[in-house]
Amino acid sequence: MADHPTDHTVIARLTSTSRRHARRAALTPDQHHAAVTELADIAAGRTDLLAQCAGLAAGAHAGQPDEALYLRAAQLCIDAGADQSQIPHWTRQAHPHATPAR
Predict the structure, then answer these.
(1) Neighbours of 15 (CB within 10 A)
(2) What pLDDT was estimated at residue 94?
(3) What is the pLDDT of residue 96?
(4) Tens of pLDDT along 47-87?
(5) Which of 95, 93, 89, 90 is nearest to 64 (CA)?
(6) How far apart, in whole angstroms, are the C-alpha atoms of residue 101 and residue 42?
(7) d(Cα 71, Cα 54) in Å, to the nearest integer?
(8) What Cα–Cα distance (Å) separates residue 19 from each residue in 1, 30, 58, 64, 96?
(9) Per 3-state DSSP, what percentage of the chain is helix, strand, and coil (rounded to 5)?
(10) Phi-psi bin for 45: left (phi > 0), alpha (psi -120 to 50), beta?
(11) Closest CA to 53 of 4, 95, 5, 87
């Protein structure tokens, strides 16, 4: 029987990976491609989990000093294929008054 990670495990991996890549203010095209590829591989087709990661990152850090870092992390999840229709929901879950990531 295959060992399938739980959604929580995948979200944790997406969060840490997107944040790690987002630490650089600007990624080269090769770095961006590597980051997006890694996130897509972790998500394994789960565009809903990419959306959850993006929305929670953007919402939880809205207005905070580290907001730019988390918006970059959210954008990487979007670029990796997040279901953009779900991002506003997750942004509101993290911060009811936040503006959804674009």
Answers:
(1) 17
(2) 85
(3) 63
(4) 999 999 999 999 998 889 999 999 999 999 999 999 999 99
(5) 95
(6) 21
(7) 8
(8) 32, 17, 12, 15, 22
(9) 65, 0, 35
(10) left
(11) 87
